[in-house]
Amino acid sequence: MHVPAWNSSQDPVATSERVGLQYKDSSDPKVAKAGIEVRRKAMYDVLPSPSNLHVWGKVETPACPLCSKHGTLEHILSSCVKALGEGRYRWWHEQVLKSLAELITARAERARHLKTSQKSINFVKAGEQPKISSARTSAGILALARDWQLQVDLE
């Protein structure tokens, strides 16, 4: 049985707008696109799990390489008892937490050096043109205080 490779550009249902996939936190367009592709493939269960690799004829058995149970995507990502016992899921979650902590710390540090802008409404009289103000960089909620402290427990 031949299963063709999945191509998101040929799938009219799997557009990022339709399924609500976004990856705005990356300034690198390649990372953003890769993040969307992984989510999309996970939603359609077309990531290379042992079960899918077996269906596609790439491996002889659909078993999980750690515990020998059926290696579905769900099993690999969150249900393998041996991976849980070895701390693999915890390690992965700590890596995600570490990345988030680094991102928040960097943005908080950048926000410390920004001038806070007062939000105001500038009314314009009838017939007059609005004055164009200089562009201001907004750091969002981080700009409202200068004493943010992030505490992360990675153990």
Fraction in helix: 40-55%
Order of helices and strands: HHHHHH
Number of helices: 6
Strand content: under 5%
Mean pLDDT: 76
Shape estimate: elongated
- SS-based class: mainly alpha
Give the terminus-to-terminus CA distance.
Answer: 47 Å
The radius of gyration computed from the alpha-carbon positions, rounded to a whole number of angstroms, is: 24 Å
Characterize the largest beta sheet: strand count, sense, and whether it forms a barrel: none
Low-confidence regions: 1-22
- Strand runs, count: 0
Task: Please characterize this protein's 3D structure.
The protein has 155 residues and is mostly helical. It has a domain of 51 residues. It is elongated, with a radius of gyration of 24 Å. The N terminus is likely disordered.
Features of the shown structure:
mainly alpha
Quick structural summary:
With 155 residues, this protein is mainly alpha-helical. It has helices at 16-19, 29-43, 50-55, 73-79, 81-85, 88-112. The chain is 40% helix and 0% strand.
Task: Please give the structural blueprint.
Layout: H1 16-19, H2 29-43, H3 50-55, H4 73-79, H5 81-85, H6 88-112
